[in-house]
Every structure is written in C-alpha cells, then in structure tokens.
Design brief:
Oligomer: single chain
Largest sheet: 5 strands, parallel
Strand content: 15-25%
Number of strands: 17
Radius of gyration: 23 Å
CATH topology of the largest domain: FAD/NAD(P)-binding domain
Structural class: alpha/beta
Mean pLDDT: 94
CATH superfamily of the largest domain: FAD/NAD(P)-binding domain
Helix content: 25-40%
Number of helices: 17
Distance between the termini: 49 Å
CATH class of the largest domain: Alpha Beta
CATH architecture of the largest domain: 3-Layer(bba) Sandwich
Amino acid sequence: MSNALKSGISSGLLDPDQYSENFSDLHPRLTRHEALVEADRCYFCYDAPCMNACPTSIDIPLFIRQISVGNPAGSAKTIFTENILGGMCARVCPTETLCEEVCVREEAEGKPVKIGQLQRFATDHYMDRGGQPFDRANATGKKIAIVGGGPAGLSCAHRLARYGHDVTIFDAREKAGGLNEYGIASYKSVDDFAQKELAFILGIGGITIENNKALGSDISLDELKAGYDAVFLGIGLDDVNSLGLDGEDAPGCIDAVDYIADLRQAEDLANLPVGRKIVVIGGGMTAIDVAVQTKLLGAEEVTIAYRRGADAMGASKYEQELAQTHGVSIRHWLQPHALVLSESGAVEAIELEVTSQSAGRLSGTGEMITLPADMVFKAIGQKLKYDPLAGADIQLDGNRIKVDEDRKTSDEHVWAGGDCIAGGEDLTVAAVEDGKVAAESIHRALQD
C-alpha cells in the first residue's frame, strides 16, 4: 500500500454518500417470509447431493426443514454443529460451485434452492439473539497452542474448547480473524461481521488470544511444543508470488492482498488511494475482489488480465459475471511481459504478451499489447513463508505443509490446516473443516 501512496495516486473520487452505497451488503439477509418461501422449494432429499458437496458436511435438508417449520434457532444449531463459522461461510462460500451446483432444483430447473442465503438467515437469527449453542465440557487441564486466528484456527479452537481443553491462539496481526477480517471483499461481509463472529466463537470459554505474536519472531515452534500438549498451525500463506518483472517494486505496482487488507481496515474509504486506470494480473478470487472494489472506489477503467481462458480461471463463473456487471473488463490469453514506468519511476502502463495453448501447454506468441495503468495489482497467488518453520521437523509437500487425513504433520505433536497445507482448497469452508478434523484428532491423542 505504501507504494500506492508514494505514487501520488488520488483518493476521494466519489461523493461521500456513494461509498456507503457501493459497499453495501451484496446479498442482504432474507426476510422471514422470503426464507419460508425459499425453504419450501427444498425437496429434503434423502442422501442429498448438496450435503455431500458441503466440505463441512452440514445436514442441509435438516436445517432447511427446520426453517420451514419456524425453527431458525434449531436450524442454526444444526449448522453450527458442523461449521461454527457458518455465518461467514454463508456470506463468502462459492455455493454456486458447491452445494447449490448439485441441488436437484438446479438440475431440474436451472434455479437451485438458495442454500447460502438460507444458511445466513438461520445463523444471523441465532447470533442476533446472543448466547452460545454449545456447552463447554469440564476442564481437562490440557493446553493447546494454535498459531493463526483465521478460519482454520478458530474452528479448531472452538471444537477443542467444547471438549474442555484450554486453548491459546497466537495471531500475528492486531485483530484475529485471518482472511475473514483482512481478505474478504467488503461488500460480502459488512458491519464488522468478522469480529462479531469472533466474539461468538470465544463465547464458549476457554480460549485466549494473544495478538501481535508472529511465529518465528515472537514465538517459536519449539517453545510452543515445550509449553503445550499439542500445537495447531493455521498460518495461511503470507508470501505473495511475484510477477518476475523489472520495476516490480515501483510505485503503483501493488500486492492485491495488501490492498484489500488496507481497504478492509480503512475508517474512511474516501482516503484510500485508487488509480484511474487499473490492471489486475490473475484469475482467482483475489483478482475479482480487488478489481470490483477498485471499481466501486471510483476507478474509471479496471481490467483483469489472465493468461488462460475463462474456464481455467480460479474464480467461479458467478464471480466473473459479478465483476463484469460492475464494469470490470476481463481479458484472457494475456500474460505480463514488462512494466512501463514514467520519468518519475511510477507505473504508467503494462506490456502484456498474447498467449496460446497447445496440448495443455501454455506459451507466448510474441504478440504484445500495452494497457495504460497507474495501478497494477499482483493477484497471482500466495505461498508459504518457510522462515518460521526453519529447523522444525515439519515435512513439506511442494511449497506447503504435508499432513495426513487427520491433518497431522510429520511432527507427532503438531497439526496443521487451512491454506498452508498441501491439498488445501483455498476456501474458508475447507479451512473450517481442516480445523474441525484436526481438533478431533488432537482430542483423541490427548485421551491416550
């Protein structure tokens, strides 16, 4: 973000009231009547395909039936039993490629039951009432350290606390929540919901959070192993992949993840610098999120450049359409070739090479195009920071932590989950499942 500020890029491109309107709730909560009507569309399938498609195995037909008979609190408890972060997942899950994609109504009519919105209706109803759906078991005297207060860490912590274990979460940032707090598009999670959900989770008791404690600098894995009965790593992916271009540190060439975090924490969006002409490199959710949000901040032209075709993009078709309906142009078969800098050294354009694919192999064609840009966002994925794990007996698979089906690492005292593990799906709901599975495994291990 600092390089954007140094480049002299403008802020406050819109009327003050426009920011609130642009960043309002993307999918406002269903009313009670709307929820009942939508719930009545469910066939309550036996061996429901939607339930099989849910990474956390929520009993979807049951929770929808509970809504239909006027029991949203019971519906919420059904959801929370499998996914304690069901409120956030209802907001950010790509339901269009998970439960709703396999809905029988989708197959028959092309219009699935709005499972995500029904889940939000139930969980919001419960959380608005206050209270905690589960009781904490008697204290066991066992202590578990969790590194990272994101979805995986919070899911793991809550499940362990329910069993009566004492949990300490060490988080590197000022606020816990991980990507739920710092990485989600603002219009998907409004009204400080990430912190409200955090307070809801902590309501079980037995969970302590220590902020501004980073693994490798403030705490070490050896210290945690010595002081706790088990350790869970939910450290995410803190390193951003580079474009590999000269001038990548120039003002105006920005990590999309950092910008989104700044946007999420901004007290006044009018003070956030935003370019007039923006190019985003990447094809995943981060690319979509930063593209749409800069357009909502007042950028005149926003273009996503992706090296392959639309079907290969990590972002779902729904998200791609969302970007386009907000005025974002998505151009395929383009890869970054060079940054064009002004006399002052700031980004003023990017040169892109046209690509082609043959037998699954991507290559450049040599044809170049140049797009004017006073901001170029890097959204080509993240990677694990190895330094905090240096010297630890933690095996890697590729550039992520190797775990077994119980999310246990090569160190018998350490488990891991979320984006940092090999095979991770980079989804909030998948991270929640990792945390839940690891907690069950840790609990079993502590009984031996």
